[in-house]
From TrEMBL:
Official protein name in the record: Uncharacterized protein
Higher taxonomy: Bacteria, Bacillati, Cyanobacteriota, Cyanophyceae, Oscillatoriophycideae
Domain of life the protein comes from: Bacteria
Length: 59
């Protein structure tokens, strides 16, 4: 279960990515880390991985 800080960071990320034409297509937890994969809306081959630790910080 994600921590409250991870949820806040996830919410910020979800709200900000559409402004730069990216979207999240996969979210998963492994241990205490939250992994989010995003794709570019323009170039579907461009992907990005966001990792958030339990303190809500990007790794």
């Amino acid at each position: 279960m994600p921590t409250e800080l991870q949820w806040y960071r996830l919410s910020d990320l979800i709200n900000g990515l559409p402004q730069i034409d990216w979207y999240i297509y996969q979210i998963e937890m492994s241990g205490d880390y939250l992994f989010m994969r995003a794709k570019s809306g323009e170039l579907g081959t461009r992907t990005m991985l966001f990792i958030i630790n339990p303190e809500g910080e990007f790794v």
